[in-house]
Amino acid sequence: MQIYLPIAEVSVNAFLLVGLGGLVGILSGMFGVGGGFLMTPLLFFIGIPPAVAVATEANQIVASSFSGVLAHLRRRTVDLRMGTVLLIGGLVGAALGLAIFNALREMGQVDLLVRLSYVVFLGIVGALMFVESVRALRRSARVGPTQPPRRRQRGWVQSLPFRMRFRTSGLYISVIPPLLVGLLVGVLAAIMGVGGGFIMVPAMIYVLGMPTKVVIGTSLFQIIFVTGFTTLLHATTNQTVDVMLAVLLLLGGVVGAQVGTRLGTRLRGEQLRVLLAALVLVVCGKLAYDLLVQPAELYEIGEAEH
Q1: 301 found inside a domain
Q2: What percent helix, strand, coil does the chain show, rounded to 5?
Q3: Is residue 302 part of a domain?
Q4: What is the pLDDT at residue 156?
Q5: In the predicted model, is pLDDT for residue 100 greater than 80?
Q6: Whole-prediction pTM
Q7: Is residue 298 situated within a structural domain?
Q8: Is the pLDDT of residue 179 over 50?
Q9: Can you tell me the distance from the alpha carbon of 27 to that of 40, in angstroms, rounded to the nearest whole number?
Q10: Is the pLDDT of residue 239 over 80?
Q11: How far is it, in rounded angstroms, from Cα 171 to Cα 169?
């Protein structure tokens, strides 16, 4: 069933959008990511303009993440104090990211910025996370599931001032690293239309030293508010949020998040990270290929903005 999207100014299959939303919802529940790193490129592939895809996908992430957080709250795997610290940095980063987005949009370079950002960040994060996760799986196979490797509690993170105790995560660390992680994720949310989970989840595990079972729910908690704030900024300043597109993605995302949460409880943390890294690398490869290959149409006639 074809449906016309007024802001994106294209016609797409409604069932396809619902299905894509469901897929992203499953990823949200399983990995603690908003799923925007996959959905936004998929929207590019089906013809949605990048500016509309970025702004609208941030809106869809809110619902799928909220659904996932409810499931994790019932399991008491959300560190609300850590999530609040990450959120403070995320809101500041979102405002900064939108300023960068708007400046490049006026220069006509925002589409290239979004695509290059995906290739760079997904490539680096996916490769590092895949290598580390494979090593962790090999260690667990040798040592056995009863002797998991200890998280590092020392180093530069422990030496910083303004320390706070995060009881749910079992940490006593400075608030500076979580604030910086949140700031980076906020910038990415505004520029790339992502929840930032593909950056936040590895950072929370390897930099902050949080246990995997708490990371997922805490990441989703922060994502809800940062992406909601990002959507509001895009809607009021750029008018690029397509409500019809967002509703169709939401329908699938809310249901998919519940399914993904149940699937995630059946896999070990190392297995979840390997799967997430593989997905990140596949999406990165597709985007890089599209940037390098010669397009079917070398020229495009467009109407100048006034």
Answers
A1: no
A2: 70, 5, 25
A3: no
A4: 63
A5: yes
A6: 0.66
A7: no
A8: yes
A9: 14
A10: no
A11: 5
CA-derived radius of gyration, the chain: 19
> How far is the C-alpha of 168 from the C-alpha of 213, rounded, in Å?
11
Q: In the structure, how many helices (H) and strands (E) does the chain have?
A: 11, 4
**Cβ–Cβ contacts within 10 Å for residue 256, how many?**
27
pLDDT at 5: 79
What is the tens place of the pLDDT at every residue in 198-220?
677 778 887 788 887 788 788 88
Number of separate domains in the chain: 1
Q: What's residue 296's pLDDT?
A: 55
Sort strands 171-174 and 163-166 into parallel, antiparallel or unpaired: antiparallel
C-alpha distances in angstroms, 259 versus 26, 29, 32, 35, 73?
6, 7, 13, 14, 16
Q: Please report whether residue 299 resides in a domain.
A: no
Q: What is the pLDDT of residue 270?
A: 66
C-alpha triplet 73, 32, 59: angle, nearest 5°: 95
Segments forming the whole domain that contains residue 132: 2-145+152-292
Query: For residues 149 and 285, what is the distance between their CA atoms, to the nearest angstrom?
Result: 32
